[in-house]
Design goal:
Chains A, B: GO terms for molecular function: DNA-binding transcription factor activity; transcription cis-regulatory region binding. Chains A, B: This is AcrR family transcriptional regulator. Chains A, B: Keywords: DNA-binding, Transcription, Transcription regulation. Chains A, B: It comes from Streptosporangium saharense. Two copies of one chain form a homodimer. Chain A has nine helices and no strands. Chain A has 191 residues and is an all-alpha fold. Chain A has two domains: 53 residues, Arc Repressor Mutant, subunit A (Orthogonal Bundle); 132 residues, Tetracycline Repressor, domain 2 (Orthogonal Bundle), CATH 1.10.357.10. The longest helix of chain A has 28 residues. Chain A is elongated and about 60 Å long. The interface between A and B is large, with 36 and 36 residues. Chain B binds a DNA duplex (30 and 30 nucleotides) through helix 3.
DNA sequence: CTCGAATGTCTAGCGGTGCTAGAGTTCGAG
DNA sequence: CTCGAACTCTAGCACCGCTAGACATTCGAG
């Protein structure tokens, strides 16, 4: 009975279309512009169709965020692929993280600013999130010194996120980003 | 013509009532619950009255945020009032900052998460914001070492904000906060 | 081939949002 | 006592996330 298979394929296709379209609108005009009406119109279906794929808008944001975590992981891994050590490795990671946020502001918002309903700290934490954390851990573990590597990653990640968040919301100037990153990396690699 | 003066007093009173009520609702039930209708009902005026005091909801959030900056400045100043030096001073400041955010989550959101329309980085930056930054600067200047103190403050503040933001949004566990703060202070005071 | 059931999609609408035009009222000045 | 300005209100706009229920389509059994 291949009919059902075809329908399932089509359904999966449409699922992906919704996620991609939501991301597209968010990148074009920000998440505020991602309304269920606009989204439905763009995919050329009515609003209720969205709710047959997702519980609600939050879950759509979550799906976009998951894509973001996979891409962030790739960006980090690629930034340290040449095998830099010590300060150079940390600097490469930090720059890759900030560049990712600058290049994908809407994606970054979905991952870290908006409520996407994703569990971050319990057993149900999705794999892409764990992998992103793992990518940070792999790079930072050997500069953590005698500190707990997991804790070290959390704090360094927090600092990066703080810089990105305050800059993106206009609370820090964009201009000083490079110097701030430099100082941050210094402090986390013992000058 | 004292009539006008009385009216102006009453108007200022109502202005403050709006700000205090908005803050109250936000503290009770979060900013999502601060709607113009609910706010109007609580102050026992109709919605349009709000718009004779503020351009819109964003400006009300901004007014609450300004209160927050004044209180944060006081909290920081009081935390370092005993004149601790070096690591102890930085630790006191960091703990005061995080404690402030924990104690006033809605206030913190207005200051650093929501779009309150406040200018942070240009000549029109309101005094309370400058003073809060100044309070950080006064404490941190003499542990900045050979780094530019302003830059040092920006980065340390970013790190604190990152910790607070990620914790408050469930991306970090609350449980590890103290250990993370410890590590952060270590890194910014040369171990 | 027919027909009832299941599946899928749509229209229409609920209760809510921020915000505002214009009507109505109040009140001080002359 | 009247008039005009200042003020506040009612009512409503366009939009939001979300959903009940009508309608169409497709499927499997007889």
């Amino acid at each position: 009975m291949p009919v059902r298979e075809r329908k399932e394929r089509e359904r999966a296709r449409r699922h992906q279309l919704i996620v991609a379209t939501a991301r597209g609108i968010a990148e074009e005009r920000g998440w505020d512009a991602v309304t269920t009406r606009r989204l439905a119109e763009r995919i050329e279906y009515s609003q209720p169709v969205l709710y047959s794929h997702f519980r609600g808008k939050r879950e759509i944001v979550g799906a976009v965020a998951l894509e973001g975590f996979a891409e962030l992981t790739a960006a980090i891994r690629s930034a340290v692929a040449g095998g830099p050590r010590g300060r150079a490795a940390v600097a490469a990671l930090a720059e890759a993280y900030v560049a990712f946020a600058e290049r994908n502001p809407a994606l970054y918002d979905a991952m870290f600013l908006l409520d996407a309903g994703l569990p971050f700290t319990d057993p149900a934490t999705p794999a892409p999130l764990r992998e992103a954390f793992g990518a940070l851990l792999d790079t930072l573990a050997d500069v953590a010194g005698d500190a707990d590597p997991g804790l070290f990653v959390e704090v360094f990640w927090s600092a990066l996120h703080g810089l990105v968040a305050l800059t993106r919301s206009g609370r820090l100037t964009e201009e000083g980003t490079a110097r701030r990153l430099d100082l941050l990396v210094d402090r986390f690699t013992g000058r």
